[in-house]
Amino acid sequence: MARVVLVTGVSRDLGARFARALAAVDGHEVIGVDVVPPRHDLGAASFVRADIRNPVISKVITGRGVDTVVHMAVVATPGSVGGRSSMKEINVIGTMQLLAACQKAESIRKLVVQSSVSVYGASPRDPVRFTEEMSARVQPRTGFGKDSVEIETYVRGLARRRPDVVVTTLRLANLMGAGVDSHVTRYLSLPVVPKVMGFDARLQFLHPSDAVTALLLATELDIPGTFNVGAPDIVTLSQALRMMGRPSVGVLHEIAPVAVGLFRQARLVDFSADQIDALTYGRAMDISRFTEATGFRPRYSSREALAEFVALAKPGVLAVERVDHALHLLARVLSPERGNSRA
Fold first, then answer.
1. Which residues are in the NAD-dependent epimerase/dehydratase domain (predicted)?
2. How far is 316 from 243, CA to CA, in rounded Å?
3. Each residue of 127-168: pLDDT tens digit?
4. CB within 8 A of 148, min separation 6: which ones?
């Protein structure tokens, strides 16, 4: 079991949630790292202000005797860090520096990396569900998907160079739940949602609390390899829009990038070409490998995670019994009969 754990990206919501939960486990000393102070409570975890893009991160690891690193400093939206170039630098250069520090540190015994469903891209030739052995039918060309592919390449390189380190990569589905701020939730929250004509994307979600549970399991157990993590069910884009009470407007596939450009200029959304594809064709993952390895069972289905977001979102103009339906689904999730998702 890990003793001294360094968690990157704790200024963001998921990183803070995970650091707080891990610090509550007996026998763990948790060190949260980020370039800015955390906006959320870290509980018993300590905080060190450091930039993983700087070699100084190596001094933090060796100086504190870190044996486990959980890397969550991955940025999905360029607007949150000042643009695509900054996003690329944090995601790729930051990961390279961190992995270099892990390779040199003799104390390191485990590395857990948060990756994303984005590595699978999105195309009309995709399988019903991607397994971990499959690769994208159309490789991600821009943005977060491309960064995630590069990050995983560097992580596999470290695993080869340090066979004594247990390296686990979790490909998380898109997060969904109350208060989640992402390109998907911003898109679904538009007053009128542009939807590519002739397509109904398949959406698979993961509630943040289930993401934390999955990360805890990966930290506590020795499960080397790559694993898909998400809720088992699928919600189509049209179903999601009905739950949100949002009207949609049909857009020809050929002019979708132009429409997104107009929304970007209005500062409503900031999508890459790959994210447009994901909201056109959709994608889903097979999660059986992680379930078999850990016994993980998400507490929230994709529909229930969306229902929690809907219950607190601004009502759409077409909302009819929307909130009642969302609260009914949430009541099922929170009922005592629902077991804990931890193995």
1. 5-230
2. 9
3. 999 999 999 988 887 777 888 899 999 999 999 999 999 999
4. 74, 91, 115, 116, 118, 119, 140
CB-based burial label for 26 (10 Å; 0-12, 13-18, 19+): exposed
- For the stretch 65-86, pLDDT in tens is 999 999 996 765 555 545 556 6
Longest dimension (CA), the chain: 59
Give tens-digit pLDDT for 175-193.
999 989 988 998 899 888 8
How many Å from the N-terminal Cα to the C-terminal Cα in the chain?
Answer: 16
pLDDT at 343 over 50: no
Distance of CA 195 to the CA centre of its chain: 23
Whether 11 contacts 38, CB under 8 Å: yes
Beta strand pairing call for 110-116 and 235-236: unpaired
**Which pTM does this prediction carry?**
0.87
User: Which residues does 36 contact at the CB level (< 8 Å), separation at least 6?
Assistant: 11, 49
Backbone angles phi, psi at 142, to 5 degrees: -140, 170
- 283's tokens: 């994608």
C-alpha closest to that of 287 among 204, 235, 332, 230: 230
Give the whole-angstrom CA distance, residue 272 versus residue 258: 12
Contact 281, 122 (CB under 8 A): yes
Q: Residue 142 has what DSSP assignment?
A: S
